[in-house]
Amino acid sequence: MKKIVMKWVKSCQECQKRSHLQQKEEGKISATSTLFERVSMDAVHIKAGRWKYLVVERDDFSGWPETVALTRLTAKPVSEWFNPEWICRYGAPKEFTVDGGAEFGKELQEEVKREG
Length: 116
Prior knowledge:
alpha+beta; Nucleotidyltransferase, domain 5; Integrase_cat-core; RNA binding; Integrase catalytic domain-containing protein
């Protein structure tokens, strides 16, 4: 009976989703070969005093993060932070990945070009 139950549980999709012994997904190999070649940026809503947003930028090769807290999430303050704090320190990335939110559209690209 125990073998039958174990076999059924192993074949049950819902049981596998709820299992505490889920296997971890293998890490994906990055296609970049140098530091700060590919960078990802995302914004998180926070409640920390006067700060409302946290912009997180991360190097895909090393995982190195940089963050800034902002009161407004528009292209201008993001680019005002990005140019001196990222580009001046690490150089301009070859690839720049964003989540497609309104604050990271073409307006941000234009602001970064204008600032730098």
